[in-house]
Amino acid sequence: MAANSKREQILAKVKTTLEAVSSLEHVERKPLRDMSELEEYPQTQLPLAVVLGGLPTPVEKVSDRDIILDRVRSVVTATIFVYAIENDNPDTKISTLADDVWAAIYDDMTLGFDWVIGLRIVPDIETAFWYPYVAFNMQVEITYLHGKGGI
Hints:
By secondary structure, the protein is α+β, with helices and mostly antiparallel strands. The chain has helices at residues 6-19, 35-40, 90-106, and strands at residues 26-28, 48-53, 57-64, 69-85, 116-123, 128-130, 133-146. It is 25% helix and 39% strand. Strands 1, 2, 3, 4, 5, 6 and 7 form a seven-stranded mixed β-sheet that branches.
């Protein structure tokens, strides 16, 4: 049933959107177990973006009795974690990657779906620096409409 899930379609679209970002080398939907796992990635696969999704939160039910329409408005959050190697200018590296991710996600605020009705990016103000790695994350809050039969 996951293929029919609008949640799954949204998260898959966020991943494919990030795969088109030239400054990112690799995009996954699997969390890192710990930071030692990052050290196992070949440098050719960094910068790495990891997309993880939360479960949708219903905002309100929308019903129009005249046209027999029954929908739920929900918000699902996709968290994008970005990891990179940078020795010389780590803060500049974060600025560059964050700017590229921001621009790619905001390029189409519907993610190509007519049932996505809103999108907001909330960057985490904390960034991480541990030689030679840098990291940051952004929350992408996607508001969409779906039926009562699934998420």
